[in-house]
Design the sequence.
């Protein structure tokens, strides 16, 4: 982990210049307008070993500058400096007035920079030969030393570490993160935290009629489980349930997927990873909240014992569901988790899942979808713009529920037409939510991974949802303390 230094008189190997495409400040170097565009990067190497190298990072138009762009710049800078093996770096204080209108860094900017730097230099090399790559030992953001900078930097490190944890979980090979291994990892992560963990498995799943999870996991040699992490930083706070879909490998069940490369099927536990990462952050920070993290975990693979199209699953709320496609399995296990959350007394429920390919067709690959409680959705959208986990509200059209009809059961697990698949999945889940509970569903199937490295996102898992969920909790606590919400 890179150390943040302030007030040091040590000479940095690399001087970082941050420039706007239309700003007044520019280093005295032959920088073209193109080099100043958002995400652009240019090196000017020292003429001797003792002379500083200069790294220029473009921020784009001044009017569009945000903490997200600063995170991206930090990620690009950290990775570029690490790649050429330099040990120390400093941001040129001459560019600060242009950036912030001050010669000192705002606290949120320190946090954003450290967060972006740590995530941009993230690597997952568990399965690769050892790489003796030089890591950056220290970075100087400002020559002015302030105590509050250390606290802001520490917050950025916590945010990055929790997001990196979610990335690690997603990037794991499915053979090393099957359901039992995932349960063990969760126990290990929270072993010394102020939480209680209960794992429902085997006979207890049957007794509690978690029949969706039992059906989906029936084809795997690794039995399914439901993990509940109970955190009471404030036992008197309103009870929030965070639910994350944990399909450790999604082969589609008997509706077998047939793509040429199916290795990405291991990312189908991205929702669970987001919830684990968010709980990691919230418990590290000791927030005053009452949260149950509920994580249904299973493999969805074909076998002689797998559940079949035409099977009917009965849920303890009285609903029966005809399975028309075993690759629409996520909603079946989330239904169990929602019902468990309601039985546990949660009055607020957020579920997050890599649920449908349709959400990507609707929103592209950078913005997740959200359905449900309008106030919650609006808050998530605002937080997402700030944190970089962008999200957009999509509609729940009541009339479309008839498309989930079945001649043999109360409903089917897949709509009778191919349109609006992400909306239909949300409508399915809504049938399991108690009318007294406030609920939102987040479909992050399109944002769980990126195909190439850019800014602070590195090829593979993104850790999407960790900061989004944690910031949602923290913002509601802060608003309640101010008397803004009941």
Sequence:
């Amino acid at each position: 982990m890179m150390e943040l230094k302030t007030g040091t008189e040590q000479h940095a190997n690399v001087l970082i210049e941050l420039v706007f495409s239309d700003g007044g400040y520019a280093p005295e170097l032959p920088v073209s307008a193109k080099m100043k565009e958002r995400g652009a990067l240019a090196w000017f190497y020292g003429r001797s070993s003792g002379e500083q190298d200069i790294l220029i990072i473009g921020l784009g138009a001044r009017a569009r500058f945000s903490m997200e762009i600063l995170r991206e710049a930090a990620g690009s800078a950290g990775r570029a400096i690490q790649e050429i093996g330099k040990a120390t770096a400093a941001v040129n204080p001459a560019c600060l007035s242009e950036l912030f209108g001050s010669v000192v860094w705002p606290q949120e900017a320190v946090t954003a920079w450290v967060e972006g730097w740590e995530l941009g230099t993230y690597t997952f090399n568990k399965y690769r030969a050892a790489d003796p790559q030089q890591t950056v030992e220290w970075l100087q953001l400002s020559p002015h030393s302030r105590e509050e900078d250390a606290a802001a930097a520490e917050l950025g490190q916590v945010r990055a570490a929790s997001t990196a944890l979610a990335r690690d979980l997603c990037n794991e090979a499915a053979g090393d993160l099957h359901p039992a291994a995932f349960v063990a990892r969760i126990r290990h992560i929270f072993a010394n935290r102020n939480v209680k963990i209960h794992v429902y498995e085997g006979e207890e799943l049957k007794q509690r009629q978690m029949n969706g999870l039992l059906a989906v996991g029936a084809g795997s040699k690794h039995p399914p489980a439901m993990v509940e992490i109970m955190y009471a930083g404030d036992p008197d706070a309103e009870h929030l349930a965070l639910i994350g879909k944990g399909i450790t490998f999604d082969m589609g069940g008997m509706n077998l997927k047939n793509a040429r490369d199916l290795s990405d099927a291991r990312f189908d536990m991205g929702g669970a990873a987001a919830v684990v990462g968010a709980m990691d952050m919230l418990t590290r920070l000791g927030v005053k909240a009452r949260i149950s993290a509920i994580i249904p975990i299973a493999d969805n693979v074909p076998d002689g014992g797998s559940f079949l199209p035409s099977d009917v699953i009965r849920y303890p709320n009285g609903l029966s569901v005809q399975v028309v496609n075993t690759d629409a399995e996520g909603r079946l296990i989330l239904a169990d988790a929602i019902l468990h959350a309601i039985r546990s007394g949660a009055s607020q429920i957020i579920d997050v899942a890599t649920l449908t390919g349709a959400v990507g067709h609707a929103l592209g690959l950078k913005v997740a979808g959200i359905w449900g409680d309008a106030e919650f959705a609006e808050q998530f959208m605002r937080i997402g713009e700030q944190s970089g986990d962008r999200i957009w509200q999509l509609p729940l059209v009541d009339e479309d529920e008839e498309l989930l009809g079945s001649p043999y059961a109360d409903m089917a697990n897949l709509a009778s037409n191919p349109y609006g698949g992400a909306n239909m999945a949300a409508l399915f889940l809504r049938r399991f939510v108690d009318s007294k509970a406030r609920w939102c569903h987040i479909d992050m199937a399109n944002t769980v991974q990126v195909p190439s490295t850019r800014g602070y996102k590195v090829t593979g898992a993104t850790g999407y949802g960790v900061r989004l969920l944690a910031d949602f909790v923290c913002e509601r606590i802060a608003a309640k303390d101010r008397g803004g919400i009941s």
Notes: The first strand starts at residue 3 and ends at 6.
